[in-house]
């Protein structure tokens, strides 16, 4: 699950956690310092720069990026182990990172969380109250650029209302499990059509 | 929505009607006589053989078939008018008919209702108590043949339990409305990426 910065990915994910306890959440690795209450292995895997650079060198990350001086990335091992156990895993991820994951997992399901409108996105970014006008303008132009990447995604979910958005994501997960191509891939061979059952 | 004979299409559809009153149900045309309580235009459009043959001649049917001496078909006009009004329409339809509809509406969503197992399907067919062993064997071999057509469908929904099957179909409808390709087709052009929002 991805989408432009400020669209509400974190809030939607927190809500999904309550609704779908069976869904596993990918835990990112980062070099930034833990904030109060954050727990290693739950909120993030907290790493030193050296540890993180080793993970990059060992291709242990599905994607990674540097943001405001800190590294963030998705450990490949945790994703692989979850999928191997037959469970669904959700990645809450920036747009550029999602496109990198798609290169490695084209069979994944890529959901783009959309603001109801660009005006609404500006209000949400402004509403955080922590940025000046230039920063907001810059983040808006990045967001518009990111919206143009929607065409690389399978689904677009408008985050107009948190419960509605979560319901749509749950429906997408249910529907994807019903896709004929997935079921055919898992199905034992049917008896030949001419054979009596 | 389609699936082998005996899988429970009618029961699932009746249940969906209660759950999704906003969904429009396609009404078939038939030359068979109305059963007690059946209403023209609600259960079927009841037609004479001459009227039905005129509809065939005028290409007024999306698909049609003759079954035990009676014609059954899907009037194209009702489907077209519903789609033009922006509503969703569901067709409860035999497997062969669904494949004909797919030729005319490749953008439709094709759901295959599956029995939990072939043993369970035989029990359901037998359970109706109206058929002899030869008829049941014949219907089973037709059903197996129809199961092999699953690969032409978008989704497979196992009808293990009526509420669960209906929930899956509702999820599929919700998810399809979130498909990026549908949303992109309906979306006004975004501002160019370089332009400030």
TrEMBL record, chains A, B:
Subcellular location per the Swiss-Prot or TrEMBL entry: Cytoplasm
Catalytic activity: GMP + ATP = GDP + ADP
SUPFAM superfamilies: P-loop containing nucleoside triphosphate hydrolases (SSF52540)
Gene Ontology molecular function: ATP binding; GMP kinase activity
Pfam families (alphabetical): Guanylate_kin
Residue sites binding ATP per the record: 3-10
EC identifiers of the protein: 2.7.4.8
SMART domains cross-referenced by the UniProt entry: GuKc
Enzyme class: transferase
Gene3D superfamilies found in the cross-reference section: Guanylate Kinase phosphate binding domain, P-loop containing nucleotide triphosphate hydrolases
One GO cellular component term: cytosol
Matching PROSITE patterns: GUANYLATE_KINASE_1, GUANYLATE_KINASE_2
Keywords linked to the UniProt accession: ATP-binding, Cytoplasm, Kinase, Nucleotide-binding, Transferase
Keyword Cytoplasm tagged: yes
Domain Guanylate kinase-like span(s) in chain numbering: 1-174
Family per similarity comment: Belongs to the guanylate kinase family.
PANTHER family documented for this protein: GUANYLATE KINASE (PTHR23117:SF13), GUANYLATE KINASE-RELATED (PTHR23117)
NCBIfam families listed in its UniProt record: guanyl_kin (TIGR03263)
Its biological purpose: Essential for recycling GMP and indirectly, cGMP.
Protein name as it appears in the record: Guanylate kinase
């Amino acid at each position: 699950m991805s989408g432009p910065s400020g669209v509400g990915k974190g809030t939607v994910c927190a809500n999904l956690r309550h609704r779908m306890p069976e869904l596993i959440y990918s835990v990112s690795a980062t070099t930034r310092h833990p904030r109060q209450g954050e727990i290693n292995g739950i909120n993030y895997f907290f790493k030193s720069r050296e540890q993180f650079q080793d993970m990059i060198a060992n291709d242990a990350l599905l994607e990674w990026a540097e943001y405001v001086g800190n590294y963030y990335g998705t450990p490949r091992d945790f994703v692989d182990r979850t999928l191997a156990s037959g469970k669904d895993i959700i990645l809450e991820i920036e747009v550029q990172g999602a496109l990198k994951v798609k290169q490695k997992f084209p069979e994944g399901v890529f959901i783009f969380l959309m603001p109801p409108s660009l005006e609404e996105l500006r209000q949400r970014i402004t509403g955080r109250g922590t940025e000046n006008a230039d920063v907001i303008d810059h983040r808006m132009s990045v967001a518009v650029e990111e919206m143009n990447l929607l065409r690389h995604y399978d689904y677009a979910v408008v985050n107009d209302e948190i419960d509605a958005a979560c319901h749509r994501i749950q429906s997408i997960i249910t529907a994807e499990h019903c896709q004929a191509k997935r079921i055919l891939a898992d199905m034992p061979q049917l008896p030949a059509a001419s054979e009596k059952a």
